[in-house]
């Protein structure tokens, strides 16, 4: 059931969109291929309908969807821009995972329909990931997300996935659409053209970060546009289930009562202060207000894993890159389109570490790690810590592999972190695009994006031999 | 009791050593100061003798000992070399924690007695840390070291620390001395002068890495010397309790039966193969055997956190630095003088991650993480993971702080990892010594060495307000 619902949704929307663009045969053949594939998959899954579809199938389905969509989405990119298959898949996966890393240059001269296709692909990816993390992950407790169960509405006790996914998808889709329309309207009021407003709203709410311009947000002169982007990037990085709950209840103060959102906003403020001080001291801008605006924008862009740029960061103090990469590791809130560790895990991790120290002082006392007023169970603690360690280990191992392909340490590490955290921009050799990366390196980074987007464990379980045994 | 025993041991040996060197008044005044301080501490602790000394006191004692010894050991360094107080404390703490990072240049021209003092300080530090990790840490379960309890001989059930420390210290001291004598003899047979053999044996067995020469092990031409160093660095990085057990039982095969030692040796082999291939491909040496010898030596030097150098690593491929830093994070075995994460934690962490994936596939199955044939308890799992996360977080935070003091990312990160893992040498700006680091940065790195040496949690608990309340 889930197969059908999601695949139809994906393919339907993709083909509708693709067909609209009548100027490009580049789009028509791939979309026909998609329809044929969808048809066969539909037949296949209809046959298997009787079987109970659960943990294993959900894991496999999520991984294969992203990989398949990545490859299919790559076909128009290849035929329009003439890049290699490797690069096209990288670009397409970068769109579908809302990473926003690019191997293209000269965007400003490309056909508008193609640019909008890229933006739309990212918007679709954002919707897909929200459905995945809100409806599927909590059932699997991947990375400790069982905690979120309490937040999602409706009955949740080990029911079959399909009806749940369908009902959850409906309201998520509504929230997502409202935010996008609000964002596009605000951009337009702030001074963007209608095309720019729509194109950027698609990648702001999805915290994707693709832009139809090489200069990204630096293309626009109005400071107010950065502020609009700030607001909608933050909204896109807050739990969509929470948005829905608070919109229907009309209780805006609920954002501050939610521990995860509260700490996310506090962290944004702290990092903004640090970066403003750094930028202002280095006199990279004309006024304090410009430094503030730019610093806040970049902190929001990196912490929400959007990855928009608006300035030449290499002119900023060297420590800026360090803080921005650290911000991208922290990430946004769970149940949103943002990447990174997510604040629910950051908060729980810090509490576990404090708990460890207290336990060392009072070894016989019985203490609990508390989150949002409830004691966190051992299995959630271990899942959260496993996730965090997986982030550290993946960063280290993938950086080493990229260094073997010839990148220097700084470029390799920032490229890996940009992909794992589905952030987008790197530093050093990969600061403007990922063209300097070798073919092998590009495939490694493509995998890194899927790995990070699917919260590591979803993809990695497929590698275990036990997964394929019965 | 533990206060008195350890302080007397430390101060006694230090003053005996210091007094031996009659040519330098630089040594006499500080050593008098030490004796006076020891006397006052002796009186103070005698008064407090009746109180039960346990967890909190053990934690505080360990931290303060290393800080105090660092400051006191710095005095002769200041007066002999004329460096600032900051730099002298760094050098002294670097010695006491067996880090081996240096802010000195022109070692070859310095007085031999001073150079031997530096080496001896590191040897003392090695002994201190072995007693600390074997006798005290398992009682506190800092970083999951309760697991090691099974390994240490004698009754261990919540007894008072003092008699246990005394009995354990005796055999550790014996093992340490035997290894050092064996190492010095082997160096001498391999062609070193008696002074060089003794000086290097003191910092090989302690995996400290100080050398009386600027070129470190590169000072010697005989390839066989590197092989001798390999053997004794590895022995110094294997659990001393295990050494004692197997020496008395005359069962050399026991090393391979010990899971931690086995994986440590396997990892050494794997990294050696990778580095040999890298070095041989880049043709940095005249022959395959030279590449092999150099690659194995550097892998052993970094993985055991000794930090000896024997070649100009900047001529090696860029990925070399990445692999060596990664090796230093892996570290040696628990209960030895080595730094880093220790293999017992590496092995358990990987098993926990695998366990998480299996649990995602079979959510209802009851599975256990097994180490050395026994199920690992939840509190050990959480302590191990907390330790690993603390390593990652400390590395990130301290790197950011160092970048604020003006270092570039690569230098800052490798400097921090060199200090946290008590390794010694960094890369980039800090590849030959730590002089380019600012004063603030030097203090940060001094703290990092103590933080890493005392397994993070020992020092960090002192920062909790709860520690100081009753
Ligand atoms: K992004
Ligand atoms: K060392």
Automatic annotation (TrEMBL), chains A, B:
Predominant place of localization: membrane
Pfam families in the cross-refs: TrkH
Keyword Magnesium: no
One GO MF term attached to the UniProt entry: potassium:chloride symporter activity
Domain of life assignment: Bacteria
Location(s) in or outside the cell: Cell inner membrane; Cell membrane
InterPro entries given in the database record: Cat_transpt, TrkH
Cellular component, GO annotation: plasma membrane
Record NCBIfam families: 2a38
Family: Belongs to the TrkH potassium transport family.
Designated name of the protein: Trk system potassium uptake protein
Source species: Idiomarina rhizosphaerae
């Amino acid at each position: 059931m889930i197969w059908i619902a999601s695949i139809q949704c994906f393919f339907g929307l993709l083909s509708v969109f693709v067909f609209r663009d009548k100027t490009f045969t580049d789009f028509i053949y791939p979309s026909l291929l998609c329809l044929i594939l969808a048809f066969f998959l539909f037949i296949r899954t209809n046959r298997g309908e009787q079987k109970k579809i659960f943990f294993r199938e959900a894991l496999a389905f999520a991984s294969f969807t992203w990989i398949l969509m990545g490859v299919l989405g790559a076909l128009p990119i290849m035929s329009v821009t003439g890049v290699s298959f490797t690069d096209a898949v990288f670009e397409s996966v970068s769109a579908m995972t809302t990473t926003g890393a690019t191997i293209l240059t000269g965007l400003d001269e490309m056909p508008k329909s193609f640019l909008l296709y890229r933006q739309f692909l990212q918007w679709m990816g954002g919707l897909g990931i929200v459905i995945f993390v809100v409806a599927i992950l909590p059932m699997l407790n991947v990375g400790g997300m069982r905690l979120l169960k309490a937040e999602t509405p409706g009955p949740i006790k080990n029911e079959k996935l399909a009806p749940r996914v369908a009902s959850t998808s409906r309201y998520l889709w509504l929230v997502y659409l409202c935010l996008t329309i609000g964002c596009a309207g605000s951009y337009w009021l702030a001074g963007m053209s209608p095309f720019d407003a729509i194109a950027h709203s698609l990648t702001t709410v999805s915290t994707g970060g693709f832009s139809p311009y090489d200069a990204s947000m630096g293309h626009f002169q109005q400071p107010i546009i950065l502020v609009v982007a700030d607001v909608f990037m933050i909204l896109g990085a807050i739990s969509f289930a929470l948005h829905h709950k608070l919109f229907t209840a009309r209780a805006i103060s609920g954002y501050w009562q939610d521990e995860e959102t509260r700490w996310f906003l506090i962290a944004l403020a702290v990092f903004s202060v640090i970066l403003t001080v750094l930028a202002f001291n280095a006199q990279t801008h004309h006024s304090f207000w410009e430094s503030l605006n730019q610093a806040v924008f970049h902190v929001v862009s990196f912490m929400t894993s959007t990855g928009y740029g608006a300035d030449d960061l290499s002119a900023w103090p060297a420590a800026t890159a360090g803080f921005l990469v650290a911000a991208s590791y922290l990430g946004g809130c769970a149940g949103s389109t943002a990447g990174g560790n997510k604040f629910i895990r950051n908060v729980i991790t810090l509490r576990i570490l404090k708990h460890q120290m207290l336990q060392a002082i009072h070894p016989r006392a019985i203490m609990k790690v508390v989150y949002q007023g409830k004691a966190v169970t051992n299995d959630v603690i271990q899942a959260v810590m496993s996730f965090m360690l997986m982030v550290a280990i993946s960063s280290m191992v993938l950086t080493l592999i990229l260094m073997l392909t010839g990148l220097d340490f700084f470029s390799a590490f920032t490229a890996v972190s940009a992909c794992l955290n589905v952030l987008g921009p790197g530093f050093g050799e990969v600061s403007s695009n990922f063209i300097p990366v070798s073919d092998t390196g590009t495939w490694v980074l493509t995998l890194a994006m899927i790995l990070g987007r699917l919260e590591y464990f979803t993809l990695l379980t497929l590698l275990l031999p036990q997964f394929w045994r019965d």
